[in-house]
Amino acid sequence: MDKYSELMKNNDSNLRKPTVKLISSRDSLYSGWEITRISKTINNVYYQNELINTIRALLIGGTDPKDIYVLNDSVNIGNQYTKYSSGIIDIDNKKGLVKWYHLGSPISLFPDKFVSLIFLIFEAYRETVTFCNKNQFLLPNKEESLFEMKQNINNLNFSIKDTIFRFIISKNNIDKNTKEKMSSLEKKLDFYDKKMEETKSNNYSVEFIIENMNDNKMKFDPNSEFKKYFLATNRPIVLVREENNLRILCSELIVRSKFQHSNYRFFENKSISQNSPLCYIVAFGIGFLPTLINVTKQRIYLHKTRIDNLKRAKDKDEEILILENEIEELEKFLNDNVDDKVVSDTIELSSKNKLREAAKFSFDSVNRLQKVTEKATLNIMEENNITILNEDL
Fold first, then answer.
1. CA dihedral in degrees (159, 165, 168, 174; nearest 10)?
2. Ramachandran region of residue 214, left (φ > 0), alpha (ψ -120 to 50) or beta?
3. Cα–Cα dist 108/64, whole Å
4. Of 165, 200, 377, 391, which sees the most CB atoms within 10 A?
5. Could you report the per-residue pLDDT of 293-313, keeping only the tens digit for each?
6. DSSP letter for each residue of 103-129
7. How far apart are CA 324 and CA 303, in angstroms?
8. How open is the CA angle 159-120-130, to the nearest 5 degrees?
């Protein structure tokens, strides 16, 4: 396990759990939709932040970026994820492979042939499920068919279409009418077989990929697909391969049974009230503080810019005073938190450079994802004029 996750999960580490008050005021009240949006945005950014801190710690610890996967599906807040309570998936057995399939299809942080082939197999089976449900076919056995395809993935004569068709035919009576229906599925599976052949013929060596990265004409970004899927959802699912197992990153923020006060990483919504001003009190793992510190610095800068502009106008003393008071509160938040050792150690995660080239490039890409989460946090605070204060409960 990476050192960051070890620290966050260590009950004996005596980490303080920051509790902050987010305050916003305006002439009119906030609607339930607006309050939900503020809460949802902060929760989502916190979850993404924990994923990013964990990925960076993995890369620093020597994990190959090819072994870190984002999935093309997101965390479903209505799902309790009971079957994933251990956070570990054994992909060398049939049930484990199906558990992986149900979470989503993988995209590796750095291009990897095996992961690309698994993606095609999973997506082809999803097409098959859609076809069978639509045309009232019995589904091919999920455990058997997925596992057989994974095991044969590198065989020269392997075909997704042939494998799936064999499983469908074994469970359904095929007549002239059903054969005609299957022609539509055949075309789709032919597409996946073609993509599989292309994938197998591609060069996935690190040296070749790095050479293309450094070719200014090609402008190849090997992390682009990972970043796209990570940002395509507010609640991405990220896995890391550890030998024959997959570990779900930040599973304690996904599995409902782990939503406990004893779970240090859990984002706690302490209270929300709007007795003018709106007051939203939250507690979270200390790894989120660097993001809030950076956002606070940006807000102070923006406020000072606004004050300079207002000073050029007349009769703006009241507005200037309000901004100056907010700056004072924001600076107090900074002073109370910026010297925290754990915060400093977490910030250091974004400045490591003793990495192999592929890992360093991936590391830089993950740092850019961090900037996106900071921007989302800044936007929600700017839009709602939110001031951050420390809260002692």
1. -170
2. alpha
3. 10
4. 377
5. 999 999 999 999 999 999 888
6. H--EEESS--HHHHHHHHHHHHHHHHH
7. 8
8. 90
The DSSP-derived string for 294-359 is HHHHHHHHHHHHHHHHHHTSSS-HHHHHHHHHHHHHHHHHHHHHTT-HHHHHHHHGGG---S-HHH
Spatial contact of 297 and 307, defined as CB atoms under 8 Å apart:
no
- Please give the Cα distance from 88 to 77 (Å, whole number): 20
As a whole number of angstroms, the distance between CA 55 and CA 351 comes to 14
Q: What is the distance between the alpha carbons of residues 251 and 83, in angstroms, rounded to a whole number?
A: 12
Closest CA to 119 of 224, 208, 222, 225: 225
Which tokens in the block code for residue 347?
């910030």
Among residues 148, 124, 149, 94, the alpha carbon closest in space to that of 132 is found at: 124
**Quick check: 21 and 280 in contact, CB under 8 A?**
yes
Contact 88, 247 (CB under 8 A): yes
- Say how far residue 226 (Cα) sits from the centre of its chain: 10
> In 3D, which of 250, 351, 234, 336 has the Cα closest to residue 293?
336
Q: What is the pTM of this model?
A: 0.91
